[in-house]
Amino acid sequence: MDALERARESWHWRGQARPPWATAPGPGRESVWDYPRPPRLEAEPRELRVLAGDVVLAGTRAGLRVCETASPPTFYLPLRDVRAELLRPAPGHSVCEWKGAAVYWSVRAGGPGIDGAVWSYPEPFEPYAALRDHLAFHPGRLACFVDGERAHPQPGGYYGGWITDELAGPFKGEPGTEGW
Fold first, then answer.
1. What is the number of H-type helices and E-type strands within the chain?
2. What domain range is 160 assigned to?
3. Domain-embedded: residue 127
4. Does residue 177 fall inside a structural domain?
5. Residue 18: inside a domain
6. CATH of residue 128
7. How many domains does the chain have?
8. Count of alpha carbons within 13 Å of 14, Cβ hemisphere only?
9. Do residues 75 and 100 touch, judged by C-beta distance below 8 A?
10. Spatial contact of 123 and 133, defined as CB atoms under 8 Å apart
């Protein structure tokens, strides 16, 4: 194990500054290592759009974003701005220690169905109650945009963060980050 791996194993982000292996964000950028734990929920006024193929599933300037240490933000769009008729309940669920129990949705638009590409928290824990009646979309399965910039998926396939050019990592989900 090299020195960087030892540092990553021993560093705990609760209440500490950005770790030494984090990329410095530079002007106009933000480091995911400056995000808090527990996560921060904030209004997102930029335009958010989600497409399945050439079909627009959602678009809003009234989104929310969840910012958590080591992860790119996850964006939540209000149900009123989503074409809900294109979604069907999907099997499975998960539990977030901060937000509560998530349910999943499949997309039926833009070609073959895309199972589990959308999730929501019908009964979120406080202080995340604002997530009720909002949906999150996985940028690895759908085309997700922030002010016209296409977001890249968070590494690893499991997490739903949206990586845009404004972010500096490394990001949870990359190889070797299981302990983060």
1. 1, 15
2. 3-168
3. yes
4. no
5. yes
6. 2.170.150.40
7. 1
8. 2
9. no
10. no
Q: pLDDT tens per residue, the chain (180 residues)?
A: 444 454 445 545 455 578 888 999 999 999 999 999 999 999 999 999 999 999 999 999 999 999 999 999 999 999 999 999 999 999 989 999 999 999 999 999 867 789 999 999 999 999 999 999 999 999 999 999 999 999 999 999 889 999 999 999 999 998 888 777
Please answer whether residues 7 and 45 qualify as being in contact, where contact means their C-beta atoms are separated by less than 8 angstroms: no
Question: Does residue 174 form part of some domain?
Answer: no
| DSSP-derived 3-state class of residue 137 | strand
| DSSP state letters, 33-89 | GGS-SSPEEEEE-S-EEEEETTEEEEEESSEEEEE-TTS--EEEEEGGGB-GGGEEE
HSE at residue 171, side-chain half, CA atoms within 13 A, is 22
Question: pTM to 2 decimals?
Answer: 0.90
Read off the tokens for 163: 């990586």
